[in-house]
């Protein structure tokens, strides 16, 4: 089992704009929720993505594998748990799970690549690697 200290938690509330006509979270919004959680985790690791972009590097989602387990509804409080599963030269793989209390609603494995502004893959800078290690599954 992974070390709980390595899991980042992001809490959010489901708003009307997140739902469909039935008051259920629209499926694509889970991708927004996990993006916000991952971006918050990176910010809390003291990685400045604006400065990174100004230096010509960006993180780009390369692959998403997702499963929908149950529906969230209007006004639910959700917790997105994010963990860095693997980091290689130019990519990172994250596990992200959305819960309502202890109920798993959505799970995803996200592959993120570090790329130059031209779109070509490039190595993740060593200082950023070190900052993100706190959220690694083996921490």
UniProtKB/TrEMBL annotation:
Pfam families: 4HBT_2. The keyword Metal-binding does not apply. Keywords: Hydrolase. InterPro entries: 4-hydroxybenzoyl-CoA_TE, HotDog_dom_sf, Tol-Pal_acyl-CoA_thioesterase, YbgC/YbaW. Belongs to the 4-hydroxybenzoyl-CoA thioesterase family. This is Tol-pal system-associated acyl-CoA thioesterase. It comes from Amylibacter marinus.
């Amino acid at each position: 089992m992974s070390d709980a200290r390595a899991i980042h938690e992001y809490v959010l509330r489901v708003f009307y704009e997140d739902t469909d006509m039935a008051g259920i979270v629209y499926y694509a919004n889970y991708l927004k929720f996990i993006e916000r959680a991952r971006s918050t985790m990176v910010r809390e690791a003291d990685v400045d993505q604006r400065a990174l972009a100004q230096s010509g590097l960006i993180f780009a989602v390369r692959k998403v594998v997702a499963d929908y387990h149950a529906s969230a509804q209007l006004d639910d409080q959700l917790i997105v748990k994010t963990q860095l599963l693997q980091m290689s030269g130019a990519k990172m793989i994250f596990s992200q799970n959305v819960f309502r209390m202890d109920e798993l609603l959505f799970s995803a494995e996200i592959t993120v690549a570090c790329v130059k502004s031209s779109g070509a893959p490039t190595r993740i800078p060593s200082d950023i690697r070190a900052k993100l290690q706190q959220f690694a599954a083996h921490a």
